[in-house]
From TrEMBL:
The family this protein is said to belong to: Belongs to the glycosyl hydrolase 1 family.
UniProt-listed PANTHER family: 6-PHOSPHO-BETA-GLUCOSIDASE, GLYCOSYL HYDROLASE
Record InterPro entries: GH, GH_1_N_CS, Glyco_hydro_1, Glyco_hydro_1_AS
Keywords per UniProt: Glycosidase, Hydrolase
Entry annotation: catalytic residues: E383 (nucleophile)
Domain of life: Bacteria
Protein name: 6-phospho-beta-glucosidase
Record flagged with keyword rRNA-binding: no
Amino acid sequence: MGFPKDFLWGGATAANQYEGGYLSGGKGLSTLDAITGGNKDQPRMITFKTKEGEIKEVTRSESLPEGAVGYVDPEKYYPSHVATDFYHHYKEDIALFAEMGFKCFRLSISWARICPKGTDEINEEGLKFYEAVFDECLKYGIEPVVTINHFDIPMYLADHYDGWSNRKVIDYFLFFCETIFTRYKEKVKYWMTFNEINFLRSWTQIGIHSSEAQSKYQAVHHLFVASAKAVQLGHQINPDFQIGMMVAYIPSYPMTSRPEDVLEALQFNREQEFYIDVQVKGYYPAHKIKQFEREGITIVKEPEDDAIIAAGTVDYIGFSYYMSTASTANPENVKYVGGNQMPAVKNPYLEESEWGWAVDPLGLRISLARLYDRYNVPLFIVENGFGAVDELTIDGQIIDDYRIDYFARHIAAMKDAVELDGVDLIGYTPWGCIDVVSSGTGEMKKRYGFIYVDMDDNGHGSLKRMKKKSFDWYKQVIASNGENLAK
């Protein structure tokens, strides 16, 4: 049994954390270009200009004042500007992925590289760059898996349209989609519309200035309509396209068997599954409609929106899995630890990473079983990984047995989900297959990759690529189709 013969083993990255090439080749500014570096104790900041012209900053999860615009301060360090420079190293990197045996490579396209302002202006040089990347992948038999939008928006749309709160942005996004679907219709089969759609919020990710729930959910509605229209458009351009959605999935267990804790876990999980419900089932779930009624949130819809969402359901569910959490009706009695984009309750039965993320391989099997039972569509694990400080030995090696152990246990859980639970699993693309800038903290110190990149938290380094011990281990895993997990 085991994994299917055509299982897509690979790795995952994002343009704003990996690509670099800031303003190179006609690229425009994106919101992430105005986000500084940080660490687990110091938050990343948005630098901006007020409408009065003052230069200020707020944390990346906060809102900008009305009328404020993004600003790149030449005195500050912005990790996205160089990142780990895939823009100038793509041939070298893809050759390393091929050496590991990748069957696929998940990457995102920078909207601002194709449409510098996010509008209907096309940058041909940007199109040629991704065409060269896809050709390089295909040369080695690597299937590109493309995230259309990964955690940013062209800064012009944020500053002049208030981002996704403005319905006009749907039209600009569809222009971008039509451009890349048409250009790459013979080179890319697998697409995802929005990365971790349940985590999209604030000026940083969706360009909105308000932090009110009304503004957030109105923007989310526009994202749903845009995704559904993109699915329909993509299938018209090439019926063989497989177009999925992508959610950050963090299963929550009740802290105890008290019914109150069980209810808290139900509500936590439903908040994540709301985003999947809309994009897979094609309608808003009843519990969310009731929440909107209670909180006085009114989603402004065009008459055809519900029909569009119903007709534009996705072909598969892509999701990230890093950790689980726990839920309790008495939050004052528990300890909180680090989490993926949110605080998480400490589970006393689980170990944690240095950044406080719970390590829960069995939670991955639980997630796969839960999602497949609930939706009965193919699943694709498009992010999973272990952030850690990697040390170079005297002879230049990186012995990352901790990472190998993490992956071995998670892949074993995946295999159980396929063999024992009957889950239809398309593939597996571990996060940061090569070292990239951390999205949450802006650090380089927090590394995920099988390939080490010489770059530090302040943007200093040669950008030299070096194989870690996990490189050869993952090569062995792929060659055996997941059967050989031995160190």
